[in-house]
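Running low. Got one?
___
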Amino acid sequence: MSYLKKCKPFYLALLMFSSTAFADIHFNKFWVPITLNGNYDSFYYWFEPQFRFVEPAAFKIPSKPYFPYSPYVIRQNSIFQQFLGNIAGGGKIHPEWILWFGQTLTTESQDAIQSSREEYRAFQQLTWDHTTYFGIRINSRFRVEERRSLDFSQWAFRMRERIILNIPLTNNMAYEISDEALYNLNSVPWIDTTAWDQNRFYIAVVQTFSDNFAFAVGYMNQYLFSREQQLNNILYLNVRFFLPT
């Protein structure tokens, strides 16, 4: 056991290096979602504005067989990168299952070509929430999105699955670990990613202050399977409100 503990930094470094080795672009980002959950009798609602920032940087991208340009530079000059407005409502179809319908409006599409800015999404999702005998909470979110760039007429369809583990440390503190895979169901001119859109791995500490308020801070590793593959390190800060029923 002591040997494995000593090797943990090595395994982590190897994982980060292997991910970075296959990416062309690397950004440091800061995401701040503000989550509001609640229900009125059997109706559940969710509202979440997200503010996303990025470190200004410039990257020189080498030419590739499928992208036969001479090396060129990609620049990110603006600190404020993206705003997302999410809203959804749903109802329980089983004690642990909720069916949701919602929509999202974004100021810029991260996986789209540069001329595509505002994006509208309608989505349907199914969530499963289960607590084990050991107090570990497992949450699954399966979502299908219909996406429309306001600059293009074609609709893009995407499927995404996220698994979250919430592991209690104390009565009001827990580890949270999740992974989310996003997959494009069709190909449209304004989307720059492949069939695999992106993957997001996340680990955080959650502090619960009351039945109505919690706070999570952690790290997210975001990998975009775009023409110039992108690996982003994200500081993730989530403010959570739970309205009384």
Summary: Residues 31 and 52 are 4 Å apart (CA to CA). The longest strand covers residues 193-210. The chain has one domain: 2-242.
